[in-house]
Amino acid sequence: MSYSNSAPIPSWWKRLYSVWYRHFRVYTSNFYSNAFPPFFEPLIFLVGLGLGLGSFIPEINGMGYLLFLAGGIMVTSAMYTAAFECTYGTYIRLVIDRIYDGMLGSPLLVRDIIWGEILFVGTKGFFFSLAVLIVVSCFGIVKEPLSILVPGVGFLTGVIFAALSLVITSLVHNINHFNFYLTGCLSPMFFFAGVVFPLANLPLGLQYFAEILPLTHVVRLARALISPELLNFNLVYDFLYCLVFLVVMSWLAIKGLEKRMID
Amino acid sequence: MTETEAGDYAIKINNLNKSFQTFQAVRNLQFTVAKATCFGLLGPNGAGKTTTLKLLYGKAKPDLTPETQIDVFGLDPHKGALGIKSFAGIVPQQDNLDSELNVRDNLRVYAKFYGLSPQETQKQIDNLLSFMELEEKALAKVKELSGGMQRRLTIARALINHPRLLILDEPTTGLDPQVRHLIWNKLRELKNTGVTILLTTHYMEEAFQICDRIIIMDKGEKILEGSPRDLLRANLEKHVLEIPWLRALSNSTETYLQKHQIRYEFFNDTLFAYSNSYESLASFGENLKLGDYYLRNANLEDLFLKVTGRSLNELQ
Predict the structure, then answer these.
(1) What value of ipTM does the predicted structure carry?
(2) Which of A34, A110, A166, B69 could share a disulfide with B14, CB 3.0–4.6 Å?
(3) Closest partner CB to B195 (pick from A3, A25, A104)
């Protein structure tokens, strides 16, 4: 054993990557239990909602209901994985396993930890959307070549819901309180963001309300990629909304979690 | 301490204060740690030891006063936390290993935080597993390890970057004697290679075994500072006689104690008598038919209890 006089500070991108790498190693250490649910979940949705409920629904704006639904669940699977990872997962790392305390003993700043985590959860979102894409492609529901870009929307969904969920986690001091967020915020969002039925069916007030929800915008982006006739310039606004949302939420998450991590 | 005056110190703290809402954890603390020495912070729970360590690497933020100075190898954690953490190794009080990962992967993940190359990482992991005698457990998951092994792994993890400064918060609390001695040996070895070590402990023996210099803290303040031996010599008689189940003294006993200048106190139904003369304590125990007694050398623990008080505070 000897000590070293040169101790370079890793560059910021190396620091973010190292945090990403930590989460990746832990996630893949339980590979089978983590890799299969993303494929099963869309199957359940497609069979349960698509075939069951869908048989009552003729077509939505010229789209088959299964295709309509596929566009929605491609992003909601990313949303839910992000929400669970950055609520229960983050809380356990923060309060119970004290993983962040260990990380803060190494050359990482709180913001490195937060951004590394957001990027990892974005990667998870990518993977979950990809899993849905594979399933719906196998069933021949999605055929458009552009749909190959959907996992990119999954990534975007992952990062914005990671950031939002981290803000929630920074405020929560009792793990049971996540129920308010998951059933009180995300479940309603699932129904009022155009996932299972089009927004146009909602009263005007609720339609405006839906525009505030981040999920609405990512659903719109994903759906346009699997049925290109929906592509239009307004999607740029959806994308910009997501970027602004991400910047604001990640800033709030860093401020809030800094208070929790630094005495 | 002429060398520290010349600026050849590892850590220099001046006027350090830290409060949490209404509670002041660290109060006007001041100390200097010379390079390649082992410096110990002693004190009861709630004395401010852990907070002091956290303040050094930016895990806690000090109350800012104009006189506050924190200098860790020339860096201030306010601006230079990343720099400090790059050359330091930190062992927190509570092991926070990744329980899902095996021993090797725990070290591999941590090496990434320091930006070590894969080749360097491999080499250093092999070194550390052998240094901490964990080779046989390289592929075991953390949750399969005993408490002592987890502690050794946490220390190995803190050494992954060849630290120049090692900060350990109660490195051996709750471990069995074998593991404690192993860790002490390793810390001595590290010190001999030039590593500066700062640690907190409740174990007086630990301080005696490995610390060159200690401070005793209580309620956030420094009470005593010096080498363990000097502190004992200057503040306490050489020998202690303990007599349990003694609640009061007879007149003749009291006269004897006064005559032989034996200092005494009662605590928890036990009499503690202190003297530099072994003989006078021995004959006191023998001749007065006081029943069971225990005559021993005074140790750091007696000093510790003397200066921090025997009764429990609200944080213990």
Answers:
(1) 0.89
(2) B69
(3) A3
Residues whose CB is less than 8 angstroms from the CB of residue A144 and which lie 6 or more positions away in sequence, other chains included: A225, A226, A227, A228
What is the least distance, in Å, from the CA of A184 to any CA of chain B? Answer: 31
Least Cα separation, residue A151 to chain B (angstroms): 27
Give the whole-angstrom CA distance, residue B151 versus residue B157. 10
Q: Which residues of A touch B97 (CB under 8 A)?
A: 102
Q: B81 vs chain A: nearest CA distance in angstroms? A: 8
CA distance B115 to chain A (A): 5
Contact A182, A110 (CB under 8 A): no
Q: What Cα–Cα distance (Å) separates residue A234 from each residue in A240, B45, B234?
A: 10, 61, 81
d(CA B66, CA B85): 24
Q: Residue A7 is nearest to which of B58, B87, B100, comparing CB atoms?
A: B87
Contacts of A259 in chain B (CB under 8 A): none
- What stretch of H or E contains B225? strand B221-226
Per-residue pLDDT tens listing for chain B (316 residues): 434 444 689 999 999 999 998 899 999 999 999 999 999 999 888 889 999 999 999 999 999 888 899 999 999 999 999 999 999 999 999 999 999 999 999 999 999 999 999 999 999 999 999 999 999 999 999 999 999 999 999 999 999 999 999 999 999 988 888 889 999 999 999 999 999 999 999 888 888 889 999 999 988 999 999 998 888 888 888 888 888 877 777 787 888 888 888 888 888 778 888 888 888 888 877 766 656 788 888 887 788 778 777 666 555 5
CA A129 – CA A140 distance, rounded (Å): 16
Q: Which long-range contacts (CB under 8 A, 24 or more apart) does A143-150 make?
A: A144/A225, A144/A226, A144/A227, A144/A228, A146/A225, A146/A226, A146/A228, A147/A225, A147/A226, A149/A225, A150/A74, A150/A222, A150/A225, A150/A226
For residue B29, CA distances in Å to B49, B52, B270 come to 11, 9, 34
Beta bridge partners of B102: B141
Determine whether the interchain pair A107/B100 forms a contact, defined as Cβ–Cβ distance below 8 Å.
no
- How many residues belong to chain A? 263
Cβ separation B113–A262 shorter than 8 A: no
- Pick from A18, A26, A263: which is nearest to B60 by CB? A263
CB contact under 8 A, A102 and B92: yes
Chain B residue with the nearest C-alpha to that of A102: B96
All domains in chain B, ordered by first residue: 2-225 (3.40.50.300), 237-297 (3.30.70.980)
